């Protein structure tokens, strides 16, 4: 039974967090979460960097690497679906530290694989840990950052993924000639193990999770004191924004996503992110080939394609900045509409090199900005009691879109589709993604109007 709220000393943890400046506490949390996402990027790109050496050392055909390269992606999806719900039940910190340790240990073990089957199996298991790590990092960061800067900070954290891939390329170029391809996997394994050891003393548990799950007030107060040392919180009761606490406390996180209140929004989030990654991974995997087929030199194809990701870095920060000032859903939907318009125009300007280069940069700004903003958007949509699960399941569904995009590009190229036709086609899923967010926004607004039970969840004493 919950303890009655002491109205003389009651602290709404969201209002408390929103009232703080971005402090050393936030900086430490940001660095830890940034490193987690960066290690995800490093591991994601690792197999691509070591593939040529693997083919040479093991004398295997290149086409046999397909299962190895995709095994981690499958593991990530399953890990997100199965492991992340535990974070909404036992806590973000425990699952996050365990998942980082798990994928670090498995990455080290992968380096000692002696067959393609063993390598594929180990990459799949590594993916399970990765699938649980990133959703937890996104959720924990979003739950501690003041609302006025949340979009910008969480999106900036997501830039760690690109940084990790870039670092992987640099280190691979140095490590493989000297120590062999296994050294890349060992590096990508030892680093998470070290980070997992740092997470235990440095990473805070989510106070919103603690309040929503009735953890002792004293523990909540101690964490908030780290955030604001000057605050006097002894003896205070703590409340959070969760609505319908009786229902959410007894319902599994997965069932909450599919409940009447969230079902339509959940479906629309999944549809939007699926379409987003379909477009993103088709472009990421096939842009150089499309440019080469359109008459660009090999160097020109690589350089122009890289500008897509340069624009992406700008778009991630711009989208986050705009989300903090306007409706987050409308901002992301606008970025999708902009993507649709730009890819349609791009397909009709392939003959103009300078204009095409500019359009590719803007495409990266719009599409990457939308893609990176979906996770914080999902974290904002779901309640504390199912937030990690909501983010994780959306990311898992998006992985299916990534596979569709990669294979879809191959199918379209096999059908002899040209640059203009493919880019024009990409406007369709971009518009579908925008439409899905509009429907989601209307559903959320309707739920807000019809909600009658807004009793706060309260932290109790042990």
TrEMBL record:
Topological category with respect to the lipid bilayer: Multi-pass membrane protein
UniProt-listed Pfam families: MFS_1 (PF07690)
The organism's place on the tree of life at top rank: Bacteria
CDD domains: MFS_PcaK_like
Chain segments annotated as transmembrane: 21-39, 68-87, 94-112, 118-140, 152-177, 183-203, 262-283, 303-322, 329-348, 354-379, 391-413, 419-441
Keyword Membrane among record annotations: yes
Family matches, as SUPFAM superfamilies: MFS general substrate transporter
Protein name from the UniProt record: Aromatic acid/H+ symport family MFS transporter
Organism: Paraburkholderia lacunae
């Amino acid at each position: 039974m919950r303890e009655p709220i002491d109205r003389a000393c009651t602290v709404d943890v969201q209002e408390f967090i929103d009232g703080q400046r971005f402090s050393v506490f936030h900086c430490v949390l940001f660095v830890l979460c940034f490193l987690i996402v960066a290690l995800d990027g490093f591991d994601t790109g690792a197999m691509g960097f070591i593939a040529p050496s693997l083919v040479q050392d093991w004398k295997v055909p290149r086409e046999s690497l397909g299962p190895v390269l995709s095994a981690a992606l499958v593991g990530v999806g399953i890990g997100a679906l199965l492991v992340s719900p535990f974070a909404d039940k036992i806590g973000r910190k425990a699952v996050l530290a365990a998942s980082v340790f798990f994928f670090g240990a498995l990455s080290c073990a992968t380096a000692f694989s002696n067959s393609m089957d063993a390598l594929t199996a180990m990459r799949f298991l590594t993916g399970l840990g990765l699938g649980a790590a990133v959703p937890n990092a996104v959720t924990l960061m979003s739950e501690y950052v003041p609302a006025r800067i949340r979009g910008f900070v969480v999106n900036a954290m997501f830039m760690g993924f690109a940084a990790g891939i870039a670092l992987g390329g640099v280190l691979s170029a140095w490590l493989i000639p000297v120590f062999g391809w296994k050294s890349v996997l060992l590096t990508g394994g030892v680093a998470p193990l070290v980070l997992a050891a740092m997470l235990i003393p440095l990473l805070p548990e989510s106070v919103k999770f603690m309040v929503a799950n009735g953890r002792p007030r004293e523990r909540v107060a101690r964490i908030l004191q780290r955030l604001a040392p000057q605050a006097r919180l002894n003896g205070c009761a703590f409340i959070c924004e969760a609505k319908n606490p009786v229902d959410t406390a007894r319902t599994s996180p997965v069932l909450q996503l599919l409940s009447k209140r969230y079902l339509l929004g959940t479906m629309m989030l999944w549809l939007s992110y699926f379409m987003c990654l379909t477009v993103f991974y088709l472009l990421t995997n096939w842009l150089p080939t499309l440019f080469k087929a359109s008459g660009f030199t090999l160097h020109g194809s690589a350089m122009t394609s890289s500008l897509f990701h340069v624009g992406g870095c700008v778009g991630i920060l711009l989208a986050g900045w705009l989300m903090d000032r306007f409706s987050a859903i409308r901002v992301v939907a606008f970025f999708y509409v902009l993507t649709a318009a730009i890819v349609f125009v791009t397909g009709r300007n392939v003959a103009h090199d300078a204009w095409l280069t500019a359009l590719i940069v803007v495409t990266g700004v719009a599409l990457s900005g939308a893609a990176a903003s979906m996770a914080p958007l999902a974290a904002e949509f779901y309640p504390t009691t199912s937030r990690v699960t909501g983010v994780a399941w959306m990311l898992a569904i998006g992985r299916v879109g990534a596979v569709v995009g990669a294979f879809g590009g191959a199918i379209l190229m096999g059908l002899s589709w040209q640059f203009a036709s493919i880019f024009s086609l990409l406007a369709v899923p971009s518009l579908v993604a925008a439409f899905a967010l509009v429907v989601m926004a209307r559903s959320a607004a309707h739920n807000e109007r019809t909600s009658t039970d807004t009793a706060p969840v309260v932290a109790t004493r042990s």
